[in-house]
Amino acid sequence: MFADRARVFVISGKGGDGHVSFRREKYVPNGGPDGGDGGHGGSVILEVDDGLNTLTDYRHVRKYRAMDGENGDKKNRKGKNGEDLILKVPEGTVIKEAESGKVITDMSGENRRFLLLKGGRGGSGNQHYATSTMQAPKYAQPGQPSKELEILMELKVIADVGLVGFPNVGKSTFLTKVSNARPKIANYHFTTLNPHLGVVDLQDAKGFVIADIPGLIEGASEGVGLGFEFLRHIERTKVIIHIVDAASTEGRDPVADIYAINKELESYNPEIAARPQVIAANKMDMVYGEDDPVRKIKDEFEPKGIKVYPISAIGGQGIRELLYHVREMLDKLPDKRLIFEQEFDPEYMTGSSKDPYTVTYDQKENEYVIEGPRIEKMLGYTNLESEKGFTFFQNFLKMNGILDELEQLGIQEGDTVRMYGLSFDYYK
Questions:
Q1: How far apart are CA 17 and CA 40, in angstroms?
Q2: Can you tell me the mean pLDDT for 208-232?
Q3: Which of 82, 128, 274, 428 lies at 20 to 30 Å from 318 by C-alpha?
């Protein structure tokens, strides 16, 4: 089964502890401190691998951990750094924070490598704490703790054009005819279980990438059938080719089918439904008699600005004209691929993403109060008196949804926010 979604738990490496020791050499009875630093913990890194096209590997292993840094040792020996953990994913994989569903990064375009979780910094050995008044420090710095995060990986294929339509309307046959793709084809509903990509080469014109999205059924946007599992793959497409069985070989009304599929697209994501469409009235080789089913489709949709092309995916009739029209449609659109912008930054996450916090309004003091383990940890290692620290603080409140909760409680500019004895004035 094609795997385009996976949920995994990742943990960065803990920093090694600094060491406490003193020189012990012959004729040096009172040697100075020589405790070495701890090694840095390994980071968790995402990397695009062009040889991958599914997330199958992440279906079998759900937990990934980078190596911890080694502790420092005597004689100023620094602990070994923990080895980084590199998670390889296919291009087009969108990484989300599992709890909130917010986008962390989109592994597309120039984004080939992304630092997901930075390993903990190694602690300093006691050699760093010697002063003129404290020549034999008996303490060292512990290594920074590891960070952990549950992520959702979603593969959204990268194609310029998406094929949509009911099962058995000829999408796979069409893709085989126009490109180098070779999808498996059989005569049953949900024929295509994998999104297939093909490259369309045009003479005297720029080619494009086309994706055959598995057949949709009514209710797909609500999770009915398998169609819902693949709707995410047309989120990046710029143009949609809507293939319909003009010959009604299964007794379906092609006009009703087009409206039904467009309704599913609208329900799933209105932005997708609003993208330029062209209708391919397929199976014209199976139209007999004097009735012209294409005329009915044209009369219904061409006044709405949607061109209709009668084609035969098996025989090839009408396909050339359709493809050049699609190329013209693409040329009129901005030459920029959809990249999902970052909504959540793990750098501003403290401890576990499941650490609780509360946002309440204290009527007696007329203050908004933010408390909980996640807040306490953040305040514990943030220097709010520095510009960098205060910027970190603001981003932390934003990325964790705390500012949204304050606004839902009705906070206004100038109101007071209290956190563990610290008070701030709120300004947007």
A1: 9
A2: 63
A3: 274
